[in-house]
Amino acid sequence: MKKAVQFGAGNIGRGFIGALLSQSGYHVVFADVVDKIIDKINEDKTYTVHVMDVECEDQKIENISGVNSTKPEAVDEIASADLVTTAVGLVILPRIAPTIAAAIEKRMADGNKEPMNIIACENAIRGTSQLKKAVYENLSEEGKAFADEYVGFPDCAVDRIVPPVKSENFIDVVVEEYYEWDVERASFKGEIPEIKGMTLVDDLMAYIERKLFTLNTGHCITSYLGKLRGFPTIDAAIADEEIYDIVSKAMKESGDGLIKKHGFDPEKHAAYIKKIIGRFKNPYLQDDVSRVGREPLRKLSPTDRLISPLTTAAGYGLPVDHLLVGVGAALHYDNPEDKQSVELQAKIKEQGVREAAKEITQLTDEKLLDAIVAEYEKLA
Ligand SMILES: NC(=O)C1=CN([C@@H]2O[C@H](COP(=O)(O)OP(=O)(O)OC[C@H]3O[C@@H](n4cnc5c(N)ncnc54)[C@H](O)[C@@H]3O)[C@@H](O)[C@H]2O)C=CC1
Ligand SMILES: O=P(O)(O)OC[C@H]1O[C@](O)(CO)[C@@H](O)[C@@H]1O
């Protein structure tokens, strides 16, 4: 049986990627830092994915085990794996890189020339490439040459909404029915693995931007406006007519930029937006606005879901009024439990909103910055 190591036994690890791999005939080793989860996986050897949507279904996930990712056993598991996937969060990738590098060195020492592929399933532009860079920083020169030949690093886009939902068994997960996992065909080494639900694509950047700058753009604007108006969850926020109006128009503005940039079909893109807003309304997910808005500094960075669509659309001379409202709302995000939100609010207090926004977004267009400040002030 083929073996996959899934770094991160969290929502996406258990509710999406690990589940698909197990359903595709892999033994899945979950590598995490939380022993409680690892121990439970090893004890039960199964958990349930509750698909809760228009149609509901329970899926039993089997052929699984767990390992603490910081222990030497994790290196051994990777050294004998066919596939490694991650869903740990972008900031964690550099922390798992030394373990992956050690496993590649071990494969080389063992003379194991079977190809292995590593895919980072994170919300980011080319997350796998970022992981590869960190792994190579930890490899010897021989290790790098070995990895060049036998280790593939395909980038991907991942789309499934999996919020943490309390259930009787804490390793069970609640997911929406929809999922999309687009992986760059050209970067695989060896035979491309057959995985149910994985779509091979050639123009990955278009897929990443389509997902990140449609779903994630609309989702985070819903969360920031929802938080400002006291809505606890995404479905409650999107039910507010004004929020719905701003979010759908912001997604359209982002979409118009994407259509110009990637040549998407406008009708199909409008249908894609409509489908996503329908997903935000799923009442079973009870998705907390603070989860979706988490880490606002990352979300306000130049290449992420708020600023990149803004600069793309503005670059084509297209309207960006509702994206600007989204940025203004994000700057208001105030959650004492979120380190980045605390840092954001401290920066605004210290430097004023214009200077803080300029530093965080790295925008140089003075008119856009003026408009962001105006939206921020309107929302105050
Ligand atoms: N939850 C969602 O709906 C979606 C999340 N994503 C992305 O997937 C990634 C994971 O998100 P979630 O699953 O929601 O987060 P999560 O917080 O539920 O899971 C992350 C897991 O990584 C583990 N972890 C932390 N440090 C680790 C380390 N050094 N080694 C191994 N495991 C470690 C944590 O203990 C946790 O179990 C993020 O990049 C997120 O942006 C992408 C699409 C959907
Ligand atoms: O995981 P991030 O990047 O913090 O953002 C949360 C977003 O990711 C998702 O979990 C899935 O794409 C969305 O639910 C949400 O828009």
From TrEMBL:
Highest taxon of the lineage: Bacteria
Domain Mannitol dehydrogenase C-terminal: 203-379
Entry keywords, A to Z: NAD, Oxidoreductase
Binding site for NAD(+): A4, V5, Q6, F7, G8, A9, G10, N11, I12, G13, R14, G15
A GO molecular function held by the record: mannitol-1-phosphate 5-dehydrogenase activity
Ranges of residues in domain Mannitol dehydrogenase N-terminal: 3-196
Protein name stated in the entry: Mannitol-1-phosphate 5-dehydrogenase
Organism field: Anaerobutyricum soehngenii
Lineage per the UniProt record: Bacteria, Bacillati, Bacillota, Clostridia, Lachnospirales
